[in-house]
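Encode chain A's predicted structure.
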Amino acid sequence: MIRTTLALFAVCSVASSVVLADVPSPSLVMRGHKRDVNAVAVSADSKLVATGGDDNEMHLWDGLTLVGTRASEQGPVKAVAFSPDGKLVFIGSSYGDVTIWDREAKKDRYSNKGHASRIIQAAFFPDGKSFITGSWDHTVKTWDTATGTEKSSVKLGYQVNGVALAVDGTYFVIDSNGSVWVYAPVPKGKVAKPISVALHAGEGRAITLSPDGKTLAVGYGDNQVFFLDVATQKELRHAKVTDAVNSMSFSPDGKTLAVGTQGEDLQLVDVAKGEAAGVLKGHGRPILSVTYSPDGKKIISGSMDMTARSWPIK
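Encoded structure for chain A:
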């Protein structure tokens, strides 16, 4: 069964790490948040990083320079996402606020109460005209980017722990109450009858789709990651990591899965083999969020140690 969780002044420094396999060891450390870093995102051109923290702030980074900060009284930032053109940043709060922040103007386009509880994941559709959000209020909603108007809503009987949107925007996957639900089409306001799949006798904690949309990865609290063929709804293989899974991201070529866990190490899994491919050491507390850059040259991670790290990948 399944559960999931789908960037003033600051200093960046280089920290050493020990790795296995061919994973490079140095990482760039982004310091500025005053509490846990819950969410990370990278722009489509791989130049900008957004981070969201329990300090109620979103930080925007350009390389080693912090170029924007958005602070509010709306509670901890639990989800961030870039629009396809990189001009807008979605910010989702612990209190359910849906915010679109203009990167160039450095101010909100709008900020509305969109959910009744924590927003845990969000993603823009490929054309940038709509975006999707998942929340602990048992709903997954799609929104009009320009106006913030709700376009559709899916109501589940249980808490939504993760939402993953296919890269081509043709379907999305929800993780709730130990099952995966595949919905299509979106975002026209209506959805077809979902496919429900139970993979494992436990609650999932993280969910993500491969870039080609063919493989779904689900991570669990018992240190396991299951890979599912989306077309057949059959398990392909599973892998073991060292700690409970918090967040995952496929590499752009779909060959490697980066896994953030309740441990301090960022773990890499060979997708084809279901085996460990490397370990990135450097964080001092559990890793809450992780994502590959679209160009595949770095992994960004956020941690309870109040930092985000950028790991170069050759």
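The chain is about 0% helix and 55% strand.
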